[in-house]
Amino acid sequence: MKLIVDAHEAYAYTGGKAFDPALPCVVFIHGALNDHSVWTLLARWCAHHGYGVLAVDLPGHGRSAGTPLTSVEAIAAWLHRLLDAAGAGKAVLVGHSMGSLIALEAAERASTLVMIGTSYPMKVSEALLTTARDQPEAAMAMVTAFSHSLASAKPGYPGPGAWLRGGSMALMRRLQGRQTAVNLFENDFQVCDRYAGGEAAAARVSCPVHFILGALDQMTLPKHNAVLGALLKPRVHTVPAGHALIAEAPDAVLAALKLALQASS
Predict the structure, then answer these.
(1) How far apart are CA 244 and CA 34, in angstroms?
(2) What is the pTM of this model?
(3) I want to staple 186 with a disulfide (CB 3.0 to 4.6 A). Which of 10, 32, 132, 165 is the partner?
């Protein structure tokens, strides 16, 4: 689905069904150097079970035009305008990693807030920021290694023909190569690193909140959720995976999302 937001074309995957703003809406927000494709399983399940789905490509990512935005606050405001363009009101906001912070900041439009692979503050080490700036390919390899809980993926896991690490690297390379205006990887890491509005955003949240966390996550450690956990009082779902939990434990993440959707209905 293509929409015009801020005079630029914005893309949202609708899960194989035409988007109907009259249905309960679920919005999926991807993480750093990712796009809508990471949500395919979850988006398709929602679209085929009575929900209107918008799995967005953020500005300058994937199929969405425009310059990548440089703060969580700016992206959250853009997301509100995208919802207006789609004719959607409140929605279940589902965000992974960087996307979880965007969902939090945008939560005034949330009927339920689902934060996947989240932590706050989401600080990025200076070494990783420097590598992302100077050697993006090396940074991609580092993040791929840190994001997957297995030293080597099981053959055919989670399905025949799937290569989790290779797929992750291919996606990041493709997105980085398409964006010539800025170093997209460095930009997204900086968006995560500089966000300091979590406490204020949490104070504005009035909807149910769910955390879906990877027990083996090395990128956003579950123990770093004390601040938001105390403020948001979420229901916490823990799955046996790393930071790439959407790919590593798709069935478990979907099961947790179903529970969040049931609670919101």
Answers:
(1) 11
(2) 0.97
(3) 132
